[in-house]
Fold this protein.
Amino acid sequence: MNALSVQGITKHYSSFTLCDITFFLPQGRIMGLIGKNGAGKTTTLKSMLNLVRPDSGIIEMFGRNFMENEEVCKQNIGVVLGEIDFYKHKKLAVITAVTKRFYQNWDEEAYQKYLEVFGLDPQKRVKELSSGMKVKYMLALALSHHAKLLILDEPTSGLDPVSRDDLLGLFRQLVKDGERSILFSTHIISDLEKCADDITYIKDGKLLKSAEKSVFIQSFQSLKEPGEIRELSLEEIMLRTERRHYDI
């Protein structure tokens, strides 16, 4: 079963249009969402979550129409969006006390475990956290109600290389049993080389390609220069695609 189905999502703005975005995330897999700044990645995520209202299209989570079952679906998803911030002067313990009331499956033992894993002090105030620690705190909240689908916008941004590698390892562990799925956007393409099963590429508001990672990489090998033998990496594919136009 697909954990997430996005079909024909379109959103019009005065200076930008997200056009007919379609992709599917099977259960138990990690999908990387890529594209340069302004390509439409965050608009896609927000449209999926009804944070902005798409003009057309269908979003399904766990086989349910999201717009018709938003409250039920949100009990089973964890969301980390980079631009969302908390009250800077509040302690983490206070924010958590409010947040956990919204989730029927809140697991306090799991939450305490993630605080320890991420090195978070619940008595610290938001203003005392680095950007990376804020991401870790939002992940702790997202993971503590047994979410089956994690939707993450730039989750590794601001993390040092060791913390990033640890987080990617955690992602692989989370999907290992096949019960969870992860969709995350990132500018750090090397992260996807390490942990993604599938890649979805949005360019200028349009879907360029969505496929299993090895199939995705193979479909862009026409970008190689004459005489190049080795396979192009995901980062090289994105760099060359953004600098030249190809129909894949």
In short: Strands lie at 2-12, 17-26, 30-34, 56-61, 64-65, 77-80, 149-153, 181-185, 198-203, 206-212. The radius of gyration is 18 Å. The CA atoms of residues 224 and 232 lie 7 Å apart. The chain has two domains: 2-75+149-154+180-243, 77-147.
